[in-house]
Amino acid sequence: MSLEVYLNKGIKYVIEEFQEIEQILNEYGIGCGKCGEGLCLLKDVVEIHNVDEDVEVELMGRISNVIYPGKKIEFPKRKRKIQGQKEIKYSPPMKKMVDEHVLIMRWLALIPTVIENLDLESEDGLKLINEGLDFIRNYADKYHHAKEEDETFKYFNENLDIIKVIKNDHVKVRNHVRAMLQAINEKDKKTLADHLKAYSEILPEHIKKEDEILYPWMDRNLSTSQVGQLYSKFDEIDIEYGDAPERHRTFIENLESKFC
Ligand SMILES: [Fe+2]
Ligand SMILES: [Fe+2]
């Protein structure tokens, strides 16, 4: 098959055909094998993961060796807007979302203890789980995802795989939330625990994808004036939500002092 065909193939299918490539990508910290979708094209993988130029030559050389053993086939180098940078420097709006992830991660760390202490009978038990669901729905979903889906993603073609992967995760999370609400109503502790656990397992990888891949990629593709627009839209969202984010932060802090 020609080089062009492989370059335009989803990485999942390339890995299916040449399993060694998954291991090679892993060595460069690129976890396409574990990605829920794996639909990014082989030619876009280095761009999406912002691989350094010298690393790109080495990585693509190894991949070409697997696909065309013994032949000297060179992959075309991607065009770069800026030199690959090691340390991620976020624009102010992206930094804001990265900071929100920190609070969400603190909540995720509390979930195993919340599950151990699940109680759908007592007033205190119900208060805890309802506040937890309030955090999930209003902070992690509405407040944070309003910035992602309703604002940031709008600057991009939402049919791009990189955005589709992230939006699919949001859908999965919302399905778990719906199931959790139903389980609370039906006082079904086991189902609630199962969905809480599944929810808490999706998000760490999701947040990592956003922090390390999606947000830096968006930053590389947004103009300075778009970054400015986003920042003022985020300010408007913050005003709209008033003291709610602070209340959610207090909920997490109280829970940490109760359980940790
Ligand atoms: Fe997200
Ligand atoms: Fe996020």
Spatial shape: globular
Instruction: Briefly note the structural class of the backbone.
Output: mainly alpha
**List of distinct ligands in this structure:** fe (ii) ion
Number of DSSP helical runs: 11
Number of strand segments? 0
Largest β-sheet summary: none
| Gyration radius, in Å | 21 Å
* Helical content band: over 70%
Q: Secondary-structure element sequence? A: HHHHHHHHHHH
Please mark out the parts with pLDDT under 50 across 5 or more consecutive residues, or reply none: none
Q: N-to-C terminal Cα separation, in Å?
A: 57 Å
- Say what oligomer this is: single chain
Description of the structure:
- The chain is built from eleven helices and no strands.
- It has 260 residues and is an all-alpha fold.
- α6 packs antiparallel against α9, α7 (123-151) crosses α11 (244-259) and α8 (161-185) packs antiparallel against α9.
- The chain binds fe (ii) ion (FE2) (2 copies).
- Residues 97, 101, 144, 148, 210 line the site of one fe (ii) ion.
